[in-house]
Description:
The protein has 227 residues and is of the alpha/beta class.
Amino acid sequence: MADADELHTSIRLGADTLCGPIRLSAPQDFGRQYIEPILAQFMQEHPQVSIDLNLSDGYVDPVGQGIDFAVRFGALADSTLHARLIGENRRVVCASPLYLARHSTPQHPEDLAAHECLVMRFGVNISREWAFMQHGQTHRIMVRGRRVANDGALVRQWCLAGHGICLKSVWDVRADLDAGRLVEVLEDYDLGRTALNIVYPPTRIQPRRVRMLIERIVAQLASDSAS
Length: 227
C-alpha cells in the first residue's frame, strides 16, 4: 500500500516528488542538535512530506508506537529490530569553567562524592551510579545531586549554567567542549563506548521517503562524526 501510494503520487506530481508522513524518534538533546536541522532541510526540499518527531530519552517501541525508525544510543533492547550503524559514541564527564573555579576539579572518581552532580532519569530508574574504567579496574561511584531530569537537553543546560557536573554523550556536548563552554574532567578514565544506530521494524516496508531520509541522516551524521 505504501508503494502504491507513492506510485500514485509520482504519477500525479512527478517521479521525483516525495509525499506523505514520516514518524521517527530520537534522544532529546541529540534530536534537537542534530536531527531537527536535517529534518528542516529535508522538508524544505520535499514540501509534500510531513514529520512527526518523538523526542525521548526513554525507551521507544517502534512497532507498538507506529514509528518508521528511531535513532538510538547503545545496545538494542529488542533484538528483533533491524539496525543501521551510524557511528560510535563515548561518554564524558564535564562541567562549566565557572563551576570548576568555584568547587575545584575532581582528580579521581571518588572526588565526585564532594560535588554536585546532575543526574538523568530513564523511566523509573535514576542513573546515580557512574562507572569509570582505568587499567582494567572499574570504579563504580554513587553520585549525588539536587537536580534530576529525564531530559538530556535540560541536564546540559544545567551544566552550562554552572549547577554541577554531568555525564553526557560526547555528541551532545562536543560543540560546548570545543568552544570552552564546558570542560571535560577525569579524562584518564574510560566511561564506556556505545553504538549510535538507526533502528526500524523488520516487517515494515519502508516507503521511499523514509529510506531517503534515513540515508540523509546517516550521511550527515557520518560527516559530523568525522569532522
